[in-house]
Structures
1.
Amino acid sequence: MPQSTQLPLDQVRDHVREHFEATTWQSLLANLGMGFIAAVLLAWHFRIFGSSLSNRREFSRTFPMILMTTILVIGIVKNSWQLGLGLVGALSIVRFRTPIKEPEELAYLFLAIGLGIGFGADMWQPTTVAGLAILLAMAVIHWTRRDKRGKGLFLSIEWAHPSDQKRPLDAISKIIGAHADDNDLRRVDRAADRLDATFFVDLANMDQLSDMLAQLTQDCPGANVTVIDQNRLPSV
């Protein structure tokens, strides 16, 4: 009698285990698919609306790996607190040798991890809604800031000035102040007859930039001028 009862119980247990494993695999694959779509959208948003000075295209390529890896980790540990504790111990030894220099990059990484946790926990709807809301808010902030401040540019000037020019920085600052809506001196390197200076300038339109470059060429003969767009990073 006990043997006849044990056999059906084993079959039921094996059937439940197989069903659970199949459901887990299907859920994990579906979550990874959603995570990949979210990572592609996040990478596109970072390249278009980000203002980081690093190579945004190269940095955004890490989002799919980070997001999908987070989904994998959450999918593994969400049904086992023992694995969760082991994960905490394992991750405590991880060290990043490449520092994150831009706060915006760190914000996007946190968002990628947050989306990965949400999808890994099978919370598709709130994660999707919250993620889209955050990206939309960031885009609106970007557009509003751009409309109010105009175009932000980094202006780098290398000038081997004449020996009779005693105050080259004042001469350059005067020219920039006459054409830019606002400017901020970021760096100065001064040698005996050479000045390297970097300014951050706000311009309402490109005509201001053209007039500024023309006057710098006229009043600072021999100066090398480089203009870097803080959003797109092309060199002029």
2.
Amino acid sequence: MKGAGSRARMHATLARQGKGFLVLDLGSSPNTTMSRVAHDRLLQYLGLPAQPDPDLMSLSFLAVHVREEALEALHIDTRSVVPQAVMPPVTLNGTYTDDWGITYRPTTIGGQILYYEMVTHPLSRATGPRDLATHAWPQTPDTATWEALGLRAAALAQDTEYAVVGHPGDTSLFEVGIALLGMQRFMMALVREKELVHALLHHILDVQMRRMEGFLAHVGQYLDVLCVGDDLGQQTGLLISPDLYRQIVKPYHKQLFAAIKSKTRARLHFHSCGGIAPLIPDLVEIGIDVINPVQITARGMSPADLAQRYGDRVAFWGGVDTQSLLRSGSPADVRRQVRELASTLGKQGGYVVGAVHNIQADVPPENIVALYDEAWRISKG
């Protein structure tokens, strides 16, 4: 059977009983895949046919559904259940507006689009909760979207032994708040306009709960892992204080996670970039089983320290540095870090190997192959 042993090894790993082997992930979510350019280069390096127009998981990242033949070549243990991102109408200058009302513009190098960045924040002028009532909030995706994913999830669960990983395409609360108000306004509002922030988070939570309910109704029974995310950190630590997170944001996360846990037995995987170590106990308290991407170059994110402090309570997923190592290191350097992470983050048996966030356009394909080849070697003993 395809993926022989992958699901069992994932369950053992997320129960922190995976000592002596690694589980390999690439492409399981919009935060653990690769850019379109990196994907093109990898296919060429592996001698696989080009895929000029791959399906996307994320429009802003231009992050792809990785081609099945590439996943097989790299011995990847996970398979994704993620909706295809559909590009809205694009203006003459290349911008598009998403269903939250946020406009994005393309960033290009040599005429090639690498990603899209936000240029408008539709609620930046909101003065109070009443202004939120007239905003055009996203509609719940139609049932056909979830039905198609349900068929894929069922096939993966019944016909393969891959670990089935789901993500409905958008799950954040805090990040959406920043995007709607703008970073500066949102951060100030957390302190000065708490009534507005609570009303905003309430609206966002309502959208995400409806989206998650539809998704899990069709795929929840088949998933081994469910991914959610909300970037709470940066290179130098948290974006807000632990106290402010606990007072304002955590209650909304708690409601979302509790609803998820009531509808699926899947392990709950939480993505947040940056130095989020101070919040790991809070996240575990409200239901998180897995921390991703484990940005080891951020403050407070030493692999050895994370494993010592939290390795008995949570599993780790990611860890291989995309910021400099994968981009400019040698294959030997990459292999060395994989071994180091296996012995630190994997010390208590709870480590899924992968890159820190999506693999970017400037990562040489030989380093991608080195990452997964070394992890595969360790996994096979």
3.
Amino acid sequence: MNPQEIIKQIAAENSECILFHSGSGKDSIALLHMLHPHFKKIVCVYMYVVKDLSHINKFISYAENKYPNVKFYQVPHYSVYSSVKYGFLGCKTNPKQKQFRLTDITEVVRQNTGVKWVFMGFKQSDSLNRRLMLRGYREEAINDKTSKCYPFTHWKNADVIQYIKENNLIFPEIYGSHQSNGTCIDDAEYLLFLEKNYPADLQKVYADYPAAETILFQHKLNKTVCQK
């Protein structure tokens, strides 16, 4: 069953949905485009690691301007709570910080919006764990128990990129040798991307996670040594 047919099954009984949207990622860009004709209201949940980054805001503005039935709802990424608890990359630490999982955040969003069904861009090709998880659902895509749907279950990354090109959608960010999969503050290629294209965003990363600067410094040092 293709993604459109999976989406139509949920849309047949629901006029609203939630989409966990990564901002600049390919799966989110493509899936939102597929969802928008079928729902009167789409709440896109963007989970930020560092708030208000301009290279992410560009994609959020694009989506809200392109689709009048779309509204973004921004919350801290679940990894932020762990980072605060343990002082990841020098961030402000609170050992008593309560931990939240993706499931917890999903339920809070549901309560605050009153929307039941949640869409995510998980694919069986992403990992063994996701393949095993998705194969246990109806159509290998619909979890009726948790009201979550994964239309891209049978797609691969190449299918998503092809869909984006065919529909002339905004192209996902590319950080160095790989496409965006979120705000990877411990990834040297992501930090290099910000340094070159969005230096103000890089300073926001450093403000929240000061030790991230050492990752970029070490990367440049290693590269210089290897070139000698």
4.
Amino acid sequence: MRVSNKMIFDTAQQNLFNLTEELNRANQVVAAQKKILRLSDDPVGLTQVLSMRSGLSHVAQMERNIGLGKNWLAASESAQTQIQNLISDTKALCVQMSSGNVGTANRRSAAAIVENNLKEIVALANSQLEGRYIFSGTNTETEAFTIDGNNDVTYNGNNTPFTIKVGRDASLEIGRDGEAVFQPSGAGAGDDLFVVMKNLIDSLQGNDIGGIQTAMTDLDTCFEHISGEIADVGSKMIRVETKETILSDMDISTRERLSLIEEPEITEAIMELKAKEVAYQAALAATSKVLQLSIVNYM
């Protein structure tokens, strides 16, 4: 069979084309530092890579949720701790005002101080994080509490605790509704902080020593209740931090597995690239000699 020049040229051109493809791929592997550049490179490996990347995306979302949860809990703890301090200050004032040596004018002045404390407590109960009210349940766009001219405080949120997702099928309650925190037994009860403060103001203004003494006991009850709420926040913070550690370990483990499948050993990849370059140059030189012309004229 007679082999024509065209057949020789076509064969040489095809060989060079194949070597060029291999050279380009080797170059892409080094540049991108990825072994899998297309589905045909490793269908099974690519499927695993896509699955792991989806898992990493989920972990990243959970980590963002955890970050929000930590900030939310920290803001809640801070607000409640400051409210506790105001309760302590008010209790100390009650001790002074319950003495028979204190006059009516002093008690009325104390009433103004307690009223300011009440307004400060309401402001703290309306604490926000990133524009959302932390004590409004899931109704975070609504101001949790309002106070009128008679010192009556109204809760405007709902009774559904604010939660975050910390796993595919796991959620964590990070927000308590304000009614449960500050008005656990409803209006008129001794552990309703706002009612206790209002009654104390009325007792001070009315020079009612018995009412002041009752308020002292009720303030102790409110203080203990807030202490329990702060302890609850602390336990949730521990759980959030534990989950954060688990997610961090999961992220590291997944990225290590992903690297083994997807990333080449860079030294080997560079050696492969150099070998392809040498093979290409040798093929180009050999073809040029056979045809006594530059293959570039036909490219």
